Amino acid sequence: MDVQDITGGTETPGIPPSLFDMRPGMAIRYDAPDPRLADYVTGYHLYAASGPGAMGLENWFLPGTANVRVTLNAGPIAVSIGRFRSDPLPQASLFGPTSHAIHTVTNGGAMIGFGISALGWSRFFDGPADRYADRIEPLSAAARPGFADRLVTLLSAVRDEHGVKPALDRFLLAELGPRVADEDQIRSIARMVTDDRPNAVADTAAEWGLSPERLRRLCKRHFGFVPKTLLIRARFLRSLVPLIEAKGDLDYSRIDPGYVSASHFLRDAHAVLGTTPRRFLHAQTEFLVASLRARAAVLGSATQALHRL
């Protein structure tokens, strides 16, 4: 795949190409997976940059679910998640579930990836998700034997961006593991995380007759974090994304009603972003802003962490 020929966009009917417009040399693309994968894969994404402006390019991305990513024809990439740093990024990598913003420094090339929901984690990975929380590992060290090599071979043979979705659909349907006994509970917990309702943790535990410790173990194994962290991440992103999309002056009256005050929201901002929302939005967020807009149009949610099953 020639990076310079990647234009980005989607073939999804009804979505105007202008939603994917970026400056020359940069492109993004999102695609929905096969419906049979919809509960397990949150979407496919492709980021590309070429030319002089692609060298030393900094970008920020929001925390979310786990992701598998493969780079093609790419220069060195450095990624930081909180205090964790991967430099250089492996060609095929697993980004574990994240509770901190992700900072990248890239040097041109293409990155193809797919998001893994908690249900997807139970189907594609054998180890507990919390082992990889806020970390990046070589995919070969985290996935089942041969998974990483098969994926790199597959994507290296894709001729253009239009072939990414069908190739990944075939691959992931073939790699999908058996249903686990906890699947219905995982689905219920996922809805608890994305639904904005009081007493969500207690209601979910009561619905399934789960002890607090059992609920905590399920969340750590399949989501990567304890329930409190998952709920804080969702509440923060429900507040931050509208602020990003609004442009102009930040209006904290729009934050999630779960926050008792703006200072409460700002404390979470420091924990998740490492800075204030205002300073974060003045950083290099070109890919972030474009991806929020494009992902919402194609996949229905601006961020993976708020993706509904």
Structure description:
This protein is of the alpha+beta class. The protein has a domain at 3-178: Jelly Rolls. Helices cover 38% and strands 18% of the residues. The protein contains 11 helices and 10 strands. A 6-stranded antiparallel β-sheet has the order 1-2-9-4-7-10, sandwiched between helices. A 4-stranded antiparallel β-sheet has the order 3-8-5-6. A hairpin with a 2-residue loop joins β5 (78-81) and β6. The relative contact order is 0.17. The mean pLDDT is 93. Residues 184-283 form the HTH araC/xylS-type domain. This is HTH araC/xylS-type domain-containing protein. InterPro entries: HTH_AraC. It holds the Pfam family HTH_18. It comes from Sphingomonas hankookensis.
Would you tell me the structural class of the helices and strands?
A: alpha+beta
Please identify the top-level CATH class of the domain at 3-178. Answer: Mainly Beta
* Outline type: globular
For the largest sheet, list the strands in their spatial order. 1-2-9-4-7-10
- Figure out the total of helices: 11
Q: At CATH's second level, what is the architecture of the domain at 3-178? A: Sandwich
Name of the CATH homologous superfamily of the domain at 3-178: Jelly Rolls
Major pleated sheet? 6 strands, antiparallel
Protein name: HTH araC/xylS-type domain-containing protein
Pfam families: HTH_18
Organism: Sphingomonas hankookensis
